[in-house]
Amino acid sequence: MKRLLLILSLLAAPAYAVQPDEILDDPRLEERARDLSTGLRCLVCRNENIDESNADLARDLRLAVRERLVAGDTDDQVIDYLVNRYGEYVLLRPTVDGANLILWLAGPAMLLGGLAVAALALRRRPTAEPRDATLSVDEQARLDALLKD
What we know:
Helix content is 59%, strand content 0%. It has a domain at 16-90: Helicase, Ruva Protein, domain 3 (Orthogonal Bundle). The protein is elongated, with a radius of gyration of 33 Å. The protein has helices at residues 2-12, 27-38, 56-70, 75-86, 99-124, 137-148. By secondary structure, it is mainly alpha-helical. The chain is built from six helices and no strands.
């Protein structure tokens, strides 16, 4: 039973691609490196963080993060270094300032604009006037003739 629980707990653990030779000796620095790595995108695998990717570039990014941390950089300095080198695309959660602000606001603005255009189009649409429900004498005679048959 204990072996089964051990196997199940190992299978439930997240799959990391971090190699044993990448792991730092200082547990606090390693924890910081893992925290930073979860927010950095693998540029080869797209929407996978560098901790989970087996790509060579992801390994290089993991090593760069660890080198910067060992050199004494703060978390923000490490992120700034990678953004300056690879662009904001390396961030899994892009910033909400500058040119990105336009991208963040464009979707909701277009939705509101579309709703406004639809409301104006519906408001200006001509309404059908109610028709007189009574039949003319000719129509009534024709209806009577059809109903007799």
